[in-house]
């Protein structure tokens, strides 16, 4: 019961707070968890009768985005509600809540986001909306989809106003078709799930509006824009790598997906629910209920397994139709037909499922603390035709946490720059056993990984020594399937690329006997005649 009360108080305060106040707490997910834990200690059981929905629906100074979120949240049973008293909270907590109150992008900086222990940046607001929706999902599960757009007792559902989903021919002919299934290998004609409906609350409206505007610049091969924190130990300022980025950043997508996944979990477990601080600590730590796969490191894989692209497309369309109805003065939505909105929704969903859910998460250089490049990098002539696979050998143990992987990246860069006198870390990308890819020289600069062939292919290394053992399945899948297919989609790698082990071109044992023997069974592996 305290889970309900604590979350609803936080949501109420989020929507009443004026954003921008500076707190003394670092902008870490641990700070949000600390805030929830403090609230859970102060919220009496009777507070569980206070519903966030009533606060949200009557919140002051709601923006267009807020009004859409408010209507997408289901109505809970009516209660006499009161505005929460922020003075019952510590000053630090009040300031923190005010600071993360609204997600926004202004002048190249992103607000309302925090750094998670896995190294990802997460927008707080869509995360909390998903949690609340999951707590209400006992009402959500059996409602028709139009009730997600407007409450079923409001008398103006999409069905009642004569609006029906204009199914587009061949938009999603088969969930396992090459268009969708190429990057979602587990997508087998999925049926709608609670995650799809929760994404309608946390993501759909913003996703549709962003593609309607079409003013953002995408950073291939992923959807959304990444950024850099001013520091990692006590982060305060998050600057986007693309100063022209839209609101649909990587942090927003992470928060929206985390909210849907955790909301889905809450909707399926019996009451009483665990304290939300405990749930978040597990999810952003070792895994919920000890499951190492159900954690933030693998949000994309988990989201892909539970998301139906056709259903999500309809949810995005419904959100746009609802916004068109709620905000008739909205310039971007004027004089646009339902069919045109459906086309936007289909395109947005395709991009989200393929370029975000289906692609590996790549930590940018600033996230692992890279030193500056020495000299002037040489640009690659894209697309390239080769993918060269390495193991790092040293460090020998696989890295399974962001902290250890980032430390390994810094160590390898120091060795390459200071001992070998290279301009930078040699690899294009490095794959950890923590679910993440780490950017080395990246997609656009010539590396120093395969002597004599650096300009012809990307060098990708697994952290560890794989002479007698193999990387974990998630890391293997990244290099075998996800990374190359997303690079092909983005025009960085040729569709007929050749995959080679380092030893095939240079006298070395790299990438280790066990790993090389496995590589020989992979698609695109090519034998080289000596």
UniProtKB/TrEMBL annotation:
User: What are its GO biological-process terms?
Assistant: biological process involved in interaction with host; defense response to Gram-positive bacterium; detection of bacterium; immune system process; negative regulation of natural killer cell differentiation involved in immune response; negative regulation of type II interferon production; peptidoglycan catabolic process; regulation of inflammatory response
Pfam families, alphabetized: Amidase_2
Keywords from the UniProt entry: Immunity, Signal
Gene symbol here is Pglyrp2
A GO MF term = N-acetylmuramoyl-L-alanine amidase activity
| Native source organism of the sequence | Mus caroli
Protein name in UniProt: N-acetylmuramoyl-L-alanine amidase isoform X1
- Identify the SUPFAM superfamilies for this entry: N-acetylmuramoyl-L-alanine amidase-like
Which Gene3D superfamilies does its entry note?
Peptidoglycan recognition protein-like
The residues the entry assigns to the signal sequence are: 1-22
Q: Report which superkingdom the organism of origin falls in.
A: Eukaryota
Peptidoglycan recognition protein family domain boundaries: 360-506
Concerning its family, UniProt says: Belongs to the N-acetylmuramoyl-L-alanine amidase 2 family.
N-acetylmuramoyl-L-alanine amidase domain boundaries: 373-512
């Amino acid at each position: 019961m305290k889970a309900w009360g604590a979350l609803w108080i936080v949501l109420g305060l989020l929507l009443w707070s004026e954003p921008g106040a500076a707190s003394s707490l670092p902008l870490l997910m641990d700070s949000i968890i600390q805030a929830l834990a403090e609230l859970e200690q102060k919220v009496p059981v009777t507070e569980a009768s206070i519903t966030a929905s009533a606060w949200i629906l009557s919140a002051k100074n709601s923006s267009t985005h807020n009004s859409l979120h408010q209507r997408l949240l289901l109505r809970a049973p009516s209660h006499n509600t009161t505005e929460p008293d922020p003075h019952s909270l510590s000053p630090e907590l009040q300031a923190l809540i005010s600071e993360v109150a609204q997600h926004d992008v202004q002048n190249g900086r992103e607000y309302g986001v925090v750094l998670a222990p896995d190294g990802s940046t997460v927008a707080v607001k869509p995360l909390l909306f998903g949690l609340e929706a999951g707590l209400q999902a006992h009402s959500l599960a059996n409602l028709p989809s139009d009730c997600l757009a407007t409450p079923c007792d409001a008398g103006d559902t999409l069905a009642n106003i004569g609006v029906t989903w204009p199914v587009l021919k061949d938009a999603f002919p088969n969930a396992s078709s090459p268009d969708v299934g190429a990057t979602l290998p587990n997508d087998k004609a999925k049926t709608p799930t609670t995650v799809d409906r929760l994404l309608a609350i946390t993501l759909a409206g913003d996703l549709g509006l962003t593609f309607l505007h079409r003013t953002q610049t995408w950073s291939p091969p992923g959807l959304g824009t990444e950024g850099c924190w001013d520091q990692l130990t006590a982060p305060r300022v998050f600057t986007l790598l693309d100063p022209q980025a839209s609101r649909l950043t990587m942090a927003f997508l992470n928060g929206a997906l985390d909210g849907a996944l955790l909301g889905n979990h809450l909707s399926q477990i019996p009451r009483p629910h665990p304290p939300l601080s405990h749930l978040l600590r597990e999810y952003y730590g070792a895994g919920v209920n000890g499951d190492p796969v159900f954690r933030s490191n693998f949000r994309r894989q988990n989201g892909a397994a539970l998301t139906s692209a056709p259903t999500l497309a309809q949810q995005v369309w419904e959100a746009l139709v609802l916004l068109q109805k709620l905000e008739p003065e909205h310039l971007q939505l004027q004089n646009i037909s339902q069919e045109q909105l459906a086309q936007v929704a289909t395109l947005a969903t395709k991009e989200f499922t393929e370029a975000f859910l289906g692609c590996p998460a790549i930590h940018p250089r600033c996230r692992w603390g890279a030193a500056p490049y020495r000299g002037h990098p040489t640009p690659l002539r894209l697309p390239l035709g080769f993918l060269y696979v390495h193991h790092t050998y040293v460090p020998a143990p696989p890295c399974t946490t962001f902290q250890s992987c980032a430390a390994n990246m810094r160590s390898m860069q120091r060795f390459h720059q200071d001992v070998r006198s290279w301009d930078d870390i040699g690899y294009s990308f490095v794959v950890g056993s923590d679910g993440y890819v780490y950017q080395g020289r990246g997609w656009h600069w010539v590396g120093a990984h395969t002597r004599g062939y650096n300009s012809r292919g990307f060098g990708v290394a697994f952290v560890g020594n794989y002479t007698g053992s193999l990387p974990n399945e998630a890391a293997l899948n990244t290099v075998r399937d996800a990374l190359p297919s997303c690079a092909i989609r983005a025009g960085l790698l040729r569709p007929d690329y050749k995959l080679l082990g380092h030893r095939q071109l240079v006298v070395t044992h790299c990438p280790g006997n066990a790993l090389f023997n496995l590589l020989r069974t992979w698609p695109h592996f090519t034998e080289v005649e000596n």
